[in-house]
Description:
This protein is α/β, with parallel strands linked by helices and 191 residues long. It has helices spanning 2-19, 69-84, 98-107, 128-141, 155-162, and strands at 38-43, 91-94, 112-114, 149-153, 171-175, 183-188.
Amino acid sequence: MLRINVLVSALVFPLALVTNPLRAADALPLTELAKPGRALMLRHALAPGVGDPANFELRDCATQRNLDAAGRAQAAELGKRLAKAGVARAKVYSSQWCRCLETARLLEIGPVEELPQLNSFFRRAEAQEPQTAALRDFLARLPADGPPVVLVTHQVVISALTGRGAVSGGGVILALDGTREPRVLGDIEAN
């Protein structure tokens, strides 16, 4: 049932984010991420379409849904906003999908490290539970007083971990506390 809920969330959350006026009440300033022990789960920037083509291959960007010019500009602008908010250097982890890696690199706030726990499991429901558990283990190992962490990922991963959605280029800020259940502080809006 949880797997079905995440799939439904992946389809419904984007609409709810656009149409729900109460969403802005949860928005946090980016300066929140500059505090020790904070992590941003960031959905990749704009990439037209849904999911990936049937011939998708992880290491072949030509087979994937990728950022368009607007997505590249969105990611670069978010990087500037983060730097202005005091997050000029961060630990940056990314899904291995090309659209996430490109988003992460365009932020220009730190070296990018691939983290398979951030990979999409859209249309692969059997991967959701073990992958989310592995991501929770990873988050529990991050220091509660450490530097900012940015996790560039996909809608389904954000929803599975936080129960919240995020539009492309938006995300959820977490307070890391050494547990597998970091506290959700609020959202950042896409630019």
